[in-house]
UniProtKB/TrEMBL annotation:
Classification via InterPro entries: Ribosomal_uL10, Ribosomal_uL10-like_sf, Ribosomal_uL10_bac, Ribosomal_uL10_bac_type, Ribosomal_uL10_CS_bac
Entry's family note: Belongs to the universal ribosomal protein uL10 family.
Superkingdom of source: Bacteria
A GO cellular-component term linked to this record: ribosome
Subunit relationships: Part of the ribosomal stalk of the 50S ribosomal subunit. The N-terminus interacts with L11 and the large rRNA to form the base of the stalk. The C-terminus forms an elongated spine to which L12 dimers bind in a sequential fashion forming a multimeric L10(L12)X complex.
Record keywords: Ribonucleoprotein, Ribosomal protein, RNA-binding, rRNA-binding
GN (gene name): rplJ
Gene3D superfamilies xrefs: 3.30.70.1730, 6.10.250.290
Function: Forms part of the ribosomal stalk, playing a central role in the interaction of the ribosome with GTP-bound translation factors.
Protein's UniProt name: Large ribosomal subunit protein uL10
Amino acid sequence: MDRAQKEQVVEELGQIFESSGVVVVAHYEGMTVAHMQDLRSRMREAGGSVRVAKNKLAKIALEGKACASIADYLTGMTVITYSEDPTAAARIADKYAKDNERFVILGGAMGDTALDPAGVKAVASMPSREELIAQIVSCLGAPASNIAGAIGAPASNIASILTTLEEREAA
């Protein structure tokens, strides 16, 4: 790899570190190509990506970035998983680590917050952005549906009373 290619890799990694909602660093020593392809496809389905890069180039790319604290994790055979969704990469990495003992999560970063392996698991257990939006919408919609039910309740009560009176008169 010549100098220009290294500079391009450092620039790409820098953009990844700046734009990602979460970055997870893991060891992948002993994983087969099939395992790695499986990880990549799972991550792609969730909207994330997997990147293997030289640790030295990744450390250079981390300089001055908010997530620079993950530089300590970049030793040995490391893989970086990342996503714009703040939980997707952590969720897939955590699930994959449970299925494959050769994939060991070292830590990560969420913005400028450093995450240890327990922190990555905590982020993985959080609801996704879409799930949070759905929860907020349901909370906002609940009072409106309760009001509509309360307004409609007297009318339905009157209708049932009138029906009961009609049935008594007919009998």
